[in-house]
Amino acid sequence: MLTREDCFKEMGLLPRWRLKNVAPASRRPADDVTTPPDSKHPHLTQGIHTRGYLPHVKAQGATYFVTFRLADSLPAEVLESWADAPESERARNSERYLDRGVGECLLSRNEIADIVVQALRHHEGARYTLHEYVVMPNHVHLLLTPLGEHTLSEILHSLKSWTAQKINGLLGRNGAIWQRESFDRVVRDDDEMRALAAYIRRNPVKARLCAEEDGFRFGSAWKNAGRDACATSPVAQASLPASVQSLDWPALTAAIKTCTLCDLHQTRTQGVPGVGDIHADWLFIGEAPGADEDRQGEPFVGQAGKLLDAMLGALRLKRGENVYIANVLKSRPPGNRDPQPAEVAACLPYLERQIDLIKPKLIVAVGRIAAQNLLRTDTPIGKLRGRVHEYRGLPLVVTYHPAYLLRSPADKAKVWEDLVLAVTTMNHLKAGTKP
Ligand code: URA
After folding, report:
1. Are 356 and 302 contained in the same domain?
2. pLDDT number for residue 20
3. Ligand 1, atom 7: nearest CA belongs to which residue?
């Protein structure tokens, strides 16, 4: 087992612990660091303590790098087997393990990542300064400085319990969402601070969730670039009724047709749920209804729809037979403008419920808007094509929108390649073979 002395050394706290942002009067001599907790103000005492099998450092005024994980992302026995390893090795092991994307990866669902971002930002500036954050598919990285008398353990406890309650409510289930243990370490100096901040910003790029650091909606780089996520908007909050997750097909369709969660209901004729076989293997997802769709209540019925039908024909598919067609947005944006993030956040639970009920084998994201919103990325469509992505545990292939093809018919060959990829993937899925 690591000794206290080892821990101090590893964490760079010996020979001298350089406390940051602490008023000179409250500074203690370095060798005071091991003082046992003061029973009156345990949260103000500095030193190493353990909430389980990993040591944690309490340091008043310090900035922490924190990782907390979904309960199924890092099995307890794996974590336990690292207990005696040096901190740097534990951190490396843990990162490698998390990058494998073990477990259900609940945080890859937008509405769940939204809950975490809302929670993180709620007490920002009051309980802590939040320097950087990123919500990855099965874990969260933070760089934060607790403020005043707030302690890291209290902050993490409150974050984890509030979000767990919300996530369980959304999923209509009970049980552990987060692993009890978090990983935290004190940031020793400005160089380390810069390196860790860069690491957090780079994380979603490394995991191929986006091409640029500020292209991932659930990270501080996005927010700092001024492209604030819809995650904190009241519309997004209104868009998370747990009930959507429990609606049956007729109730879901009725809810979509009459939805008033965002302002689009004021200008649309009707909500457009989708069309086709509700037990289909194939799910095509477009952007949003246009003028014809808004009038007729069915997706892809205009000129672009004719071309989509031709694409289906190339796959020997027919609208309504083993195919379902839906959109990310169920209501028409005025003048066919791009959907706004808050509108997408409000509408996505409907699509997610549709997917859960249809249980398609494969999804084809039609066009940039559908692809980027489903994959939570800003990566250009040209770079998203040509490989199989994953959305809600299902394979997802990206192709150009038929409306774009009407303008750029030369790219039809690329669409053909995408459809070949889709059909090959489907054949492997049906045969149970690997691509
Ligand atoms: N474009 C889309 O993305 N969806 C439609 O339903 C119609 C046009």
Report:
1. yes
2. 33
3. 300
